[in-house]
Write a structure and sequence with these properties.
about 375 residues, alpha/beta, Aspartate Aminotransferase, domain 2, seven-stranded mixed beta sheet, four-stranded antiparallel beta sheet, 13 strands, binds pyridoxal-5'-phosphate
């Protein structure tokens, strides 16, 4: 290496923590990233293999707009029971992460603010900082509901975005429709509702996009559809925003295999129904059994939040890791403290391993 000065990186980058995904260790049971324990629908695999073999899906050419159109049609059918939306309301991205990245780059300029109720998904604050914005935080109340009045009072003319994860990661609770309406109606900021886990909840807030110009809903194929490895998500956005979105998003950021897979996944609603049913049933099993040892919060997602106090989350995490089970130590979530772990709902067999490990390892 020649002896030369390194080019200094942007100052704001020094403050950004690297995103730490759930660990993956060969042979261990990974319940740290809220993936689907059943995997995707077998019809998705068949469809991808068939379309590659028959030459319809060509890996050597860029993703075809026609397939993207077809996916947006399918998404529309899936999300819009009221039939009030248009295809123009649907945009795609490389996961919710990709959609959020584009939205943040549309709205946040140097010094703009974004409001984030914590604890929540940590990518929101990183994306805001990367765009030279300033994240502001409001602490969720006991039980993790959002202090709506405090949130509204914390906004000013610089507040461009509000991030609401519902169901929220890592707490598992949802915001009520009444509360989100108050937030949207009281503010001139764009309200981003992250419904990555909505399939496991009782209802969606997606219809608000047809009522308000400052509401956006983002969703994913990574969770209920079991396609996390393909990186595909979508946004349901007001029509006026679509042309801006297309200008800012990276061309071809969603690959052609992911597009095909997502279409096939949406067409197998029976498989989706089975997955959601299993997760709900197993969520109840996990909650009921872990509750015998620790406090478990009610969840509308495919994970449960567990308060392991008086133990520390790092101790319980390490103890479970010794037994080959990887959960999420939530101490890395801003505002979460040091006594929470998050456990992804698995199959009955997997959940029994967690329950056995917890019941035999921790007696308080
Ligand atoms: C609240 C929330 N939003 C978004 C994501 C990322 O989703 P995707 O895989 O679609 O990028 C996650 C992943 O864990 C999440 O918890």
């Amino acid at each position: 290496m020649k002896d030369k000065m390194r080019v200094p990186v942007r100052s704001s980058i020094q403050e950004i923590d690297e995103y730490k995904p759930g660990k993956l260790i060969e042979g261990a049971l990974k319940l740290s990233s809220n993936e689907n324990p059943l995997g995707p629908s077998p019809k998705v695999i068949t469809e991808i293999v068939k379309s590659i073999e028959e030459g319809e899906l060509k890996l050597s050419v860029y993703p075809w707009e026609k397939n993207e159109e077809e996916l947006r049609d399918e998404i529309l059918r899936y999300v819009d029971a009221s039939a009030r939306m248009k295809k123009e309301n649907i945009v795609l991205g490389a996961g919710v992460d990709g959609v959020l990245d584009t939205l943040v780059r549309i709205f946040i300029a140097n010094g703009d603010e974004a409001l984030i109720p914590v604890p929540t998904f940590s990518l929101y604050e990183s994306l805001v900082k990367i765009a030279w914005g300033v994240p502001k935080y409001v602490k969720r109340k006991r039980g993790f509901s959002i202090p709506v009045e405090e949130l509204i009072l914390s906004c000013n003319e610089k507040t461009k975005l509000i991030f609401i994860s519902s169901p929220n990661n890592p707490t598992g609770n949802c915001i009520s429709e009444d509360e989100i309406r108050v937030i949207i109606e009281s503010l001139d900021s764009m309200v981003i509702i992250d419904e990555a886990y909505v399939e496991f909840a009782d209802s969606s807030l997606v219809n608000l996009v047809t009522e308000y110009e400052n509401a956006v809903v983002v969703r994913t194929f990574s969770k209920a559809f079991g396609l996390a490895g393909l990186r595909i998500g979508y946004g349901i956005i007001p029509e006026w925003l679509t042309s801006q979105y297309k200008k800012i998003s990276i061309p071809f950021s969603v690959n052609s295999v992911a597009i095909k897979a997502a279409i096939a996944a949406l067409r197998d609603q029976e498989y989706l129904r089975k997955t959601v049913e299993l997760v709900k049933q197993e969520r109840a099993f996990l909650t009921e059994n872990l509750q015998r040892v620790f406090k478990v919060y009610p969840s509308k997602a495919n994970f449960v939040l567990v308060d392991v106090s008086p133990a520390k989350s790092s101790e319980v995490y390490a103890e479970l890791m010794k037994r080959g089970i990887i959960v999420r130590d939530c101490s890395s979530f801003r505002g979460a403290g040091d006594s929470f772990i998050r456990v992804t709902v698995g199959t009955r067999e997997q959940n029994e391993l967690v329950v056995d490990a917890v019941q035999s390892g921790f007696e308080f």
